[in-house]
Amino acid sequence: EPEVTQTPSHQVTQMGQEVILRCVPISNHLYFYWYRQILGQKVEFLVSFYNNEISEKSEIFDDQFSVERPDGSNFTLKIRSTKLEDSAMYFCATAVQADTQYFGPGTRLTVL
Amino acid sequence: GENVEQHPSTLSVQEGDSAVIKCTYSDSASNYFPWYKQELGKRPQLIIDIRSNVGEKKDQRIAVTLNKTAKHFSLHITETQPEDSAVYFCAASITGGYNKLIFGAGTRLAVHP
Prior knowledge:
The structure holds 2 protein chains of 2 kinds. Chain A is an all-beta fold. Chain A is 0% helix and 51% strand. Chain A contains no helices and 11 strands. By secondary structure, chain B is mostly beta strands. Classes of the chains: A mainly beta, B mainly beta. Chain A binds chain B through residues 31, 33, 35, 41-45, 48, 50, 55-56, 58, 91, 93, 95, 97-106, and chain B through 32, 34, 36, 42-46, 49, 89, 91, 95-106.
């Protein structure tokens, strides 16, 4: 069964550095999402992406965050200048329609 | 915006017992309610979902019920097994838009042999 994949599985970075998290959606999926989960807390919506543009974003998704689908397959989340509070597990999720979402394995981001 | 409350935060049962986890939502426009199971360090995995045109859905030992009037939905696991031990998250969304999922805080279920 096809699965969403994410790289890297763990990223350690210094505060102020840029990071790019990558997601490979299931091939026929058209809707893409990023969520984050701070350790021990609930999963929080960051952004949704459809038809090569952001369709909705949360308050968390400020100017330091951006998303794109640079090559028609990878879906990326960029954090321009990381802060300590950006440390979390970041999950990509994808869907065929705006309906059932399938999650990737996550990238654990640690900001030092 | 939508808010999802989930109870209890922890649940401990003996193997073979039933477990019930309850969620309430605030936005009456929400019409899609998935449940995800998350084992330690792993991705949330969809285990069952229900749409607002259905009151109950069952898949083997797992069932979900929805009360639209009261705006609450519940996950029922019967004949629990140790491998059911995990964190369970409910979520709510509005399909037809872009369907962001709003999650509850999670329930840590421990099934003791």
